[in-house]
Structures are given as structure tokens and as C-alpha cells.
């Protein structure tokens, strides 16, 4: 493999380019008009414009991407995440064109891309499933009957897609018809498929996902878990590895179940198997993401592995370079997604210009970002500016280092989720490990509490500065003044 095209943008394009440079593989970037001055465009060995800013006219146009790949004699395409990364039709087209997709087969994508077919596939491997029905429902009467059998509350979920779209929580029977209609409507507009299914709503749910890797030679391993329970609108904001509550025995059991899911669809490459964990530590299969995850850095930090390099080597038909018993679990890693969003206004996007953009620097800090000072955040794409990652020997150290990193991260010109990240890091429920996917609902329903926390911190800082100044003014010599300032 000598040349790889990255069919993506932003921080994931930069991330892939870094590994390609390390492996002495040429990189090709494709970009829209909105990204013509983006760092990833300049960092790639070659870059080609593929269209206007809207993704439907650029990053999602398969013909344009394949044309660039063929014109530049590209060996393989890395799709990153989002856009075409889980598009089975794209995977099939690349196969027919003789271009390697750095990802799983179209068949695996089709099986795991539909939640119902995924459930049916893993049944034979005794992977635990949430109580419910594993077939599509379109008739309201049938759906209500199923819900009554399972017992309320239930979740109505779109069969295709994810990200919380086409999902509705129904707490009582009289709300069933309205919520099913809303779920189907959203599923239809988001995925072109209004198939839904009904399953039991798990109380005190935690979102635990397992990173798996499989090669084309029958080897499947897992790289431990990630805790992804801090979410807004069913989308992750903070991730960590490992989870605060998994025992070694449960970690092993969930890891083996995740590997079974991979075997159920003859998987190859990097994938993530998502589970719900209830208050009694029972786990249930949710879905499989057939791509690299946004939060892969925390897994890299605790294992010391380069997941993008492993993807490339597997796609090149190499054997996995590591066995299950060789996978390390070293320390603890924390990730805060830095979005251009206003957490005080229901996390609404706050697009603008990065008037000031200064990143914290330390050997335990990692930042995967997409922008530089003075750049605008485009309105056309996901508003994530960066992923801020810290590593520590313990979970507590990783959290404390994250707070320090957030304090040192200077961003002005727009609002970000950094303050929310700090709020979470300092919250007792999070620090104790006693939280679930309802954290925002339970502890952030009134966002003005973040103002209170900030005001208390401000007063404490002012009091500390007053004490230092009193000590300095009372000092009689330069040496004493210097000592007080150091303190």
C-alpha cells in the first residue's frame, strides 16, 4: 500500500495523515470549498477539491471521490467516521473498482447497519439482548401489544441509523401512538426508512462500548472498554477508558461477547460493539459501529496501540500484530469533546471565529483538533473543534489533569463545551463513578447551576489572591516577595 485517500475532513483527516506519514504512505486529501484553508488540506501530500461546502455536494458524493482515487492511482481509501464510513454501497463500489476500503466488508456493514438484522445475527452466539422484539413493526396496535407484554417504560427505536434519531421513550400506554408516529417520521426523514422496533427501557443505563479488531485470518481481539455515558441528545460528550465500575471478570465477559458479535458478521478491521449496562451490572447488546470511533484516542492511550495503523495493516491483509493476552491496560484516559456549542442554551451550536486559540501542552495531554487561530467553524458540518484527552496513572489523576487542561485551554470568539466538561469533572457523582446516561437530565436540567459553580470558583480564587497580596505587602525583602509569588 503506497497511497491512501482520506474520504473525510477535520481532525480525523489529520489523525489519519499522521499515521500515514509514520508508515511512509502517501496521503491524498479531498476537500470542499469550506475547508480549502483547513490544516488537513496542507498536511496531506496531495489535495483535491471535490465540491461546494454542503456535504451532499462534496464529502458524500461517491462518484467524485472514486474519480479522484482513480486519477491519482490510490491504493486504498480511509473513510474516517461519519459521511461514507458505514455506507455499504460505497464499500461495494470500491471493491468493484479494485480499491481497498480501510474498513469492513459491505456485507458486514449491511448486517450491523440495521439494528434488527444485527440482533438476529448475534442471537446464535448467545450475546445478551435487551428484552423486546427483533422484527420491524409498522402497525400501532401490534406495537402497543408488544409494549404491554414487555412492560412500560419502553423505547421505540429506528431500525436504521443511530445518534438518537428515531428514538422515543414511552412511559405509559396512552402515549404510545403519538410517540411511535414521531419516531417513524424522524426515522423516515433521517434514514429513508421508517421501520422501528420496541424494546424494554433499561433503568440506570450506562453506555459501555468495547473496541474490537479482526483480521482476514480468523483472529479477533478486544482492546477493553470505553465508558460513554455522559451524553446530550443521545450523543456522547465525554468518554473514558476504562470504565469506573467494570470488574476484571465483567470486562472479560463483555470483551468475549463483543468478539462474538464480530464473528457473527465475519468482521474485519476496527469495530465498536455497544452495550447497555443496567444498575445490576447486566449487559445487553445495542449495536455495532462498523468504523473507527470518535473516541478511539482513549483506547490508544491505555493500550499504547495505534488503531489507525492497525486498520491499515489489516486492510493490507496482514495478521493482527497482537494477541489478546498481550493487550495492555495501562492507567486511565479521559476525553472531552470540545464542541462549538452553548451548554447553557441546551447545547445549541455557537458557530463563529476562533479569535483566540491556544492549546494546553503537557506530556499527559493529547489534542486531536481541526482548526487554527483565526479560522471560522463552518456551519455545514459537526461543530466539534477538538478532542481533549488526558492520561493518568489513576482515574482520579486523569480527571484532575483534565481540569487543569481545560483551565489552560484558551478559546475565544464562540462558546464551547469546555466549561461543561469541567463541571462534569468536578461533579461528585462523576468522580465517584455513580452516574448513568441520564447525567445531564439529573444534574444539568437547570444549566444556570454552572454559573453558580463558576462564581464559587471565582470567589475562591479572589480570596487566594488577596491572601498572597497581603503576604507580599507585609514582606520586608525581595527574597520574601519572590517566595510568596512562587506560592
TrEMBL record:
Q: Per its UniProt record, what SMART domains does this chain match?
A: Biotin_carb_C
Positions of the Biotin carboxylation domain: 1-445
UniProt keyword Nucleotide-binding, yes or no: yes
In terms of domain of life, where is this protein from? Bacteria
Q: Which Gene3D superfamilies match?
A: ATP-grasp fold, B domain (3.30.470.20)
Query: Which PROSITE patterns is this protein grouped with?
Result: ATP_GRASP, BC, CPSASE_1, CPSASE_2
Where would I find the ATP-grasp domain in this sequence? 119-316
Q: Does the keyword Methyltransferase apply?
A: no
**Alphabetical list of PANTHER family matching this protein:** CARBOXYLASE:PYRUVATE/ACETYL-COA/PROPIONYL-COA CARBOXYLASE (PTHR18866), METHYLCROTONOYL-COA CARBOXYLASE SUBUNIT ALPHA, MITOCHONDRIAL-RELATED (PTHR18866:SF33)
Name the record gives this protein: Biotin carboxylase
Its source organism is Brumimicrobium oceani
Amino acid at each position: 500500500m503506497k497511497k491512501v485517500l482520506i474520504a473525510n475532513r477535520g481532525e480525523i483527516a489529520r489523525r489519519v495523515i499522521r499515521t500515514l506519514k509514520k508508515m511512509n504512505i502517501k496521503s491524498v486529501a479531498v476537500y470542499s470549498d469550506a475547508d480549502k484553508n483547513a490544516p488537513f488540506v496542507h498536511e496531506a501530500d496531495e489535495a483535491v477539491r471535490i465540491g461546494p461546502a454542503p456535504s451532499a455536494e462534496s464529502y458524500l458524493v461517491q462518484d467524485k471521490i472514486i474519480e479522484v482515487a482513480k486519477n491519482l492511482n490510490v491504493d486504498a481509501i480511509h473513510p474516517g467516521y461519519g459521511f461514507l464510513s458505514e455506507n455499504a454501497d460505497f464499500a461495494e463500489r470500491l471493491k468493484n473498482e479494485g480499491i481497498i476500503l480501510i474498513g469492513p466488508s459491505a456485507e458486514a456493514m449491511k448486517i450491523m447497519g440495521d439494528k434488527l438484522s444485527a440482533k438476529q445475527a448475534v442471537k446464535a452466539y448467545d450475546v445478551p439482548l435487551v428484552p423486546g422484539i427483533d422484527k420491524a413493526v409498522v402497525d400501532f396496535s401490534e406495537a402497543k401489544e408488544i409494549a404491554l407484554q414487555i412492560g412500560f417504560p419502553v423505547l421505540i427505536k429506528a431500525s436504521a441509523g443511530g445518534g438518537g434519531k428515531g428514538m422515543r421513550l414511552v412511559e405509559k400506554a396512552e402515549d404510545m401512538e403519538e410517540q411511535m408516529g414521531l419516531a417513524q417520521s424522524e426515522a423516515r426523514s433521517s434514514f429513508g426508512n421508517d421501520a422501528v422496533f420496541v424494546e424494554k427501557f433499561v433503568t440506570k443505563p450506562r453506555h459501555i462500548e468495547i473496541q474490537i479488531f479482526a483480521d482476514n485470518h480468523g483472529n479477533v481481539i478486544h482492546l477493553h472498554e470505553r465508558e460513554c455515558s455522559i451524553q446530550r441528545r443521545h450523543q456522547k460528550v465525554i468518554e473514558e477508558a476504562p470504565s469506573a465500575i467494570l470488574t476484571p471478570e465483567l470486562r472479560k465477559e463483555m470483551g468475549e461477547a463483543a468478539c462474538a458479535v464480530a464473528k457473527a458478521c465475519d468482521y474485519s478491521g476496527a469495530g465498536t460493539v455497544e452495550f447497555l449496562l443496567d444498575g445490576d451490572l447486566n449487559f445487553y447488546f445495542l449495536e455495532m459501529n462498523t468504523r473507527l470511533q470518535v473516541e478511539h484516542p482513549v483506547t490508544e492511550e491505555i493500550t499504547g496501540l495505534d488503531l489507525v495503523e492497525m486498520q491499515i495493516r489489516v486492510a493490507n491483509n496482514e495478521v493482527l500484530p497482537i494477541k489478546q493476552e498481550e493487550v495492555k491496560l495501562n492507567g486511565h484516559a479521559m476525553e472531552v469533546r470540545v464542541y462549538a456549542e452553548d451548554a447553557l442554551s441546551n447545547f445549541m451550536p455557537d458557530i463563529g471565529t476562533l479569535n483566540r486559540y491556544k492549546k494546553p501542552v503537557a506530556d499527559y495531554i493529547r489534542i486531536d483538533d481541526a482548526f487554527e487561530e483565526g479560522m471560522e467553524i463552518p456551519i455545514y458540518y459537526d461543530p466539534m473543534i477538538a478532542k481533549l484527552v488526558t492520561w493518568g496513572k489513576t482515574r482520579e489523576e486523569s480527571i484532575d489533569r483534565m481540569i487543569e487542561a481545560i483551565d489552560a485551554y484558551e478559546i475565544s470568539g464562540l462558546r464551547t463545551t469546555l466549561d461543561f466538561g469541567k463541571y462534569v469533572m468536578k461533579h461528585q457523582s462523576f468522580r465517584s463513578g455513580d452516574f448513568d446516561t441520564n447525567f445531564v437530565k439529573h444534574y444539568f436540567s437547570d444549566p444556570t447551576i454552572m454559573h453558580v459553580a463558576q462564581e464559587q470558583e471565582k470567589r475562591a480564587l479572589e480570596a487566594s489572591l488577596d491572601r498572597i497580596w497581603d503576604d507580599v505587602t507585609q514582606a520586608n525583602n525581595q527574597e520574601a516577595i519572590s517566595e510568596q509569588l512562587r506560592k
